[in-house]
């Protein structure tokens, strides 16, 4: 008995790896993806213009280096695109009010949204961790807070980039990306 041509069940059509897709995307598409990770035009252009990256670690190292090199203007541009932590629907109104009040105090003191990387924090501890961090950082002087905010933006950008290239959200993100964070 002769069987006709069939594809083995375990074989699927080739799908490009996310890094390959990023490396081969048109420049505008790559920069747009990067702007969703960090709202700095200079940062997104720098990373997109140095493609292709041989591996994910090389891309992340380039993203980190570009974030470390943000000028005060680049940092202000990136911070302007950030927003307050999105709270789950079942959050108590008192917690929401406390976060809003702390964030307003932070914005009044430093002139930009509070940013924090929450990738290592369990979801049920994110609100408390965020409130504690805002209150603690309100004691920083403006230069110390600029350095802290820049580091948090770098960590956020890295987490968002990883999430986008892996195709799954993670808690390292903010409203800029699909998952929860600040």
What does this protein structure show overall?
- This protein has 182 residues and is mainly alpha-helical.
- It has a domain at 18-75: Oxo-4-hydroxy-4-carboxy-5-ureidoimidazoline decarboxylase (UraD-like), CATH 1.10.3330.
- Helices cover 56% and strands 0% of the residues.
- The protein is built from eight helices and no strands.
- It has helices spanning 18-24, 27-35, 41-49, 56-68, 72-80, 93-110, 126-137, 142-166.
- α2 (27-35) packs across α3 (41-49) and α6 (93-110) runs parallel beside α7.
- The termini are far apart.
Question: Tags for this entry?
Answer:
182 residues, mainly alpha, UraD-like, 8 helices, disordered N terminus, disordered C terminus
Compact overview of the structure:
The protein is 56% helix and 0% strand. It has 182 residues and is mostly helical.
Round the mean pLDDT to the nearest integer and report it.
84
Radius of gyration, whole Å = 20 Å
What does the oligomeric state look like here? single chain
User: Can you tell me the CATH architecture of the domain at 18-75?
Assistant: Orthogonal Bundle
Output the structural class. mainly alpha
Number of helices: 8
- Uncertain runs: 1-15, 168-182
CATH C-level of the domain at 18-75 = Mainly Alpha
Listing every helix as H and every strand as E from the N terminus to the C terminus, the arrangement reads: HHHHHHHH
Distance between the ends: 64 Å
The beta-strand count equals: 0
């Amino acid at each position: 008995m002769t069987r006709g041509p069939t594809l083995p069940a375990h074989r699927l059509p080739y799908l490009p790896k996310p890094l390959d897709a990023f490396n081969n995307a048109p420049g505008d598409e790559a920069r747009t993806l990067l702007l969703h990770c960090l709202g700095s035009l200079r940062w997104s252009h720098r990373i997109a213009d140095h493609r292709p990256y041989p591996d994910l670690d090389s891309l992340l190292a380039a993203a980190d280096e570009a974030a470390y090199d943000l000028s005060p203007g680049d940092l202000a541009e990136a911070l302007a695109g950030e927003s307050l932590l999105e709270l789950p629907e079942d959050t108590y109104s008192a917690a929401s009010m406390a976060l809003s009040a702390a964030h307003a105090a932070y914005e009044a003191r430093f002139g930009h949204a509070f940013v924090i990387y929450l990738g290592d924090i369990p979801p049920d501890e994110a609100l408390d961790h965020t409130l504690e961090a805002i209150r603690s950082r309100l004691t920083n002087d403006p230069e110390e807070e600029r350095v802290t905010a820049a580091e948090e933006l770098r960590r956020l950008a890295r987490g968002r980039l990883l999430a986008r290239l892996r195709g799954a959200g993670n808690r390292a993100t903010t409203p800029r990306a699909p998952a929860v964070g600040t």
